Amino acid sequence: MWNAWKRHWPEYGMEAAGLGLFMLSACSFATLLAYPGSAVHLALPDPTLRRGLMGLAMGLTAIGLIYSPWGKQSGAHFNPAVTFTFWRLGKIAGWDAGFYVLAQFIGGSLGVMLAAQLLRDPLAHPSVHYAVTAPGGFGLGWAFAGELVISFLLMSMVLRISNSLRLNRFTGLFAGTLVALYILLEDPISGMSMNPARTWSSALSARDFSAWWIYFSAPLAGMLLAAELYVHTRGRGAVRCAKLHHMNQKRCIFRCGFHAPALAGPDSGGAGS
Q1: Nearest CA-CA partner of 221 in 232, 213, 209
Q2: How far from 203 is each of 44, 112, 200, CA to CA, in Å?
Q3: Could you tell me what percent of the chain has a pLDDT over 70?
Q4: Which of 184, 206, 246, 260 has the most neighbouring CB atoms within 10 Å?
Q5: What is the CATH number of the domain that holds 64?
């Protein structure tokens, strides 16, 4: 444990900061678009249009974080379900996975707390409610199914694109596009989380843990199912690394297959550390 911390604490901090910034962005745009006193809310009465703009904002936020220097080095998980899935695939050591998950919960929670200090009453207003993820009007069963499906599709995309030498560099663009589409299309069903730490962070400040089990179980189940299917069809060796975007010059702390001699080159990224 101590050895992992000494060697990889910068990556843990990057994961915490990444989800913290994502949550700060989510709270800010949710307030801007959903708070009844907001000029943007008043100018855009169509909820579908506002949801589309929220999706665009969060998709761009996700892309920016994935391609940021921090995202390139930590692997840009920002999600315990992603980290746990890569641990299940054998690409991340146990202590690293544990510290990643802890960092994600802490960072996300601090991000919402900072947003609460900056935005105050508008963020706490019932129409915004600290950007809490909650089941829509279709019920708990549909919310669970929605989270399961979108998590399955996201991880399926990540595994296929991030492990491709030709397409790896575009993983962040695909991920951000899916986030935007999910908020537009799936948000009315489950609130669109895919991320236990994201849900926890808003729920902690809002003191609202309604249906929390959906957002802890469905994303994990969906991503693990995607991983099992990928390994079954392509083999465990087809999973090269736990980074979403590996083709960069940042170090890689994972059990990485991109640094094999046959793959080495000026754009091959760092070797495992």
Answers
A1: 213
A2: 27, 9, 5
A3: 95
A4: 246
A5: 1.20.1080.10
What is the arithmetic mean of pLDDT over 169-178?
97
* Two tokens, residue 107: 């960072």
In the predicted structure, residue 259 carries a pLDDT above the cut 70: no
As a dihedral over the C-alpha atoms of residue 91, residue 4, residue 64, residue 34, rounded to 10 degrees, the angle is 100
| Residue 255 · residue 93 · CB < 8 Å | yes
188 domain-assigned: yes
Q: Say if residues 239 and 230 touch (Cβ distance below 8 Å).
A: yes
Of residues 228 and 268, the one with the higher pLDDT is 228
At a CB cut-off of 8 Å and minimum separation 6, what does 49 contact? Answer: none
Average pLDDT over residues 187-197: 98
- 8 Å CB contact between 249 and 243: no
Domain that holds residue 148: 2-263
| Count of domains forming the chain | 1
CA distance linking residue 40 with residue 50, whole number of Å: 9
Radius of gyration over every alpha carbon of the chain, rounded to an integer in angstroms: 18
What predicted TM-score, i.e. pTM, was given to this entire model? 0.93
Q: Give every CB contact of residue 197 below 8 A, 6+ residues apart in sequence.
A: 19, 78, 79, 80, 101, 104, 105, 107, 108
DSSP H or E stretch at residue 34: helix 2-34
The 10s digit of each residue's pLDDT in 135-164 is 999 999 999 999 999 999 999 999 999 999
Q: Report the first-to-last Cα separation within the chain, whole angstroms.
A: 15
The reported pLDDT for the residue numbered 35 is 98
Within a domain: 42: yes
Dist CA 172 CA 154 (whole Å): 11
